[in-house]
Write a structure and sequence with these properties.
Radius of gyration: 16 Å
Number of strands: 8
Oligomer: single chain
Number of helices: 10
CATH superfamily: Aldolase class I
Strand content: 15-25%
Number of domains: 1
Order of helices and strands: HEHEHEHEHHEHEHEHEH
Length: 215
């Protein structure tokens, strides 16, 4: 098992209609693999926090997932709930429709609504790289930096191509060093995960963690 790589992985299970049994199995697998964190839906945060209480595994959940188009008030309510349940980190979805329509004030306000209400939980902003042009991605990077989020994240995993090496390289060039990068979406093997890290990714989000970490 590659412990260095495991320490960068957020073992992910997202989507509708996830069962109790699936969550418990997912957490057990995360413990077996020794990953950094699990990324799970908001409704399972409290249970997950109990299951990992005697481990070093962090609990990550998603806010306004997967479209990022809820009101700022709804984003704040989800953020407060996530904190109350015990989430360590929050992955929020940027309103990429607003970004594409050049409503940058709306995009920035949405990010700030979460960031300003999240502390001490860290916030990652999912920008859906494969839905954006390089110019739009550059603007997204600027907005994430202005909002003082801790991370930028490539994808929900539900839109087109997911993580791409060229996007990681571009984001690392554009972002200040204090903002880290989480690569997610379509990461299914160790080689690609290692290439993304070499390009500048600090974390890897994947549901295929066992495959990635099995020699």
């Amino acid at each position: 098992m590659n412990k260095a790589l495991a320490a960068k992985i957020e073992h992910t299970i997202l989507g509708p209609n996830i069962s109790y049994e699936a969550i418990v199995s997912h957490i057990k697998e995360a413990m077996d693999l020794g990953v950094f964190a699990v990324c799970i839906p908001l409704e399972w945060v409290a249970l997950t926090k109990k299951l990992v209480k005697d481990t070093f595994i962090k609990v990550v959940t998603v806010i306004d997932f997967p479209l990022g188009q809820a009101s700022d008030e709804q984003k704040i309510l989800e953020t407060i709930a996530a904190k109350a349940f015990g989430a360590d980190e929050l992955d929020m979805v940027l309103d990429y429709e607003a970004l594409i329509n050049k409503d940058y004030e709306k995009v920035l306000a949405g990010i700030k609504a979460v960031v300003q209400n999240a502390s001490p939980a860290l916030v990652k902003v999912i920008v859906e790289t494969s839905a954006l042009t390089k110019e739009q991605l550059a603007i997204a990077c600027s907005l994430v930096a202005l909002a003082k989020a801790a991370f930028i994240k490539t994808s929900t995993g539900l839109h087109k191509a997911g993580a791409q090496i060229e996007d990681i390289i571009l984001m690392r060039k554009l972002l200040p060093d204090c903002i880290k990068i989480k690569a997610s979406g379509g990461i299914k093997d160790s080689k690609f995960a290692q290439e993304l890290i070499a390009a500048g990714a600090d974390r890897i989000g994947s549901s295929k963690s066992r495959i990635i970490l099995t020699p």
